[in-house]
# Entry
Amino acid sequence: MSTSAYLSGRRRYSRPQAMLWADNPGTLSNGLYVPIGLEVGASTDETDPNLLDQFIVLSDHNRGDMQFTNQRIEQRQRTINGRMRSYHIADKLSMSVSWDMLPSRGYSTFPGYDTDTGISEYTKSQDEYTVDGGAGGVELLDWYENHPGPFWMYLAYDKYSNFDNDKYQHLAEYNQIIQVYFADFSYTVVKRGGANHDLWNISVTLEEV
# Structure
């Protein structure tokens, strides 16, 4: 099961990778939101399908900008005296992101993340291809192919306004969780590697439920 210690072990630097995709909105663990269940690639004897392959940690390897667009859903109408009135329904988010020359796989073989520490035995070895051990191109494509419906996106960027207490102290955690659909997913196999991996360009657009 994922815990705050697991996610801390999975991140390579002082802050977690910018995105995590999960099949659930998570739970609180030591004050941090973590997804329920096990990561794709975890080393485990667990057989419960409700716990297996519940999330992936996306890599920041050659990741481009995260582009956010807000859509304000409302009904506007001018009254008889010419003033505008608006009935606000909701604000919904659209987010686009891309990777250039992302390795097609995070590791040369099954990563086998330790379920307590989140560390793979291949971490920082020549068998690890993404700079932070995050998901490679095939892992992203596989998630897309297996998720025609909604899933949850965890984001880690400086949006301290999401917090009421100690709002300036949350850079080292996922601070926004949104349920999304895939609006677009495209990839290009730029270079085919030798006996280890290929390099892909990937572009993804996600829309809030």
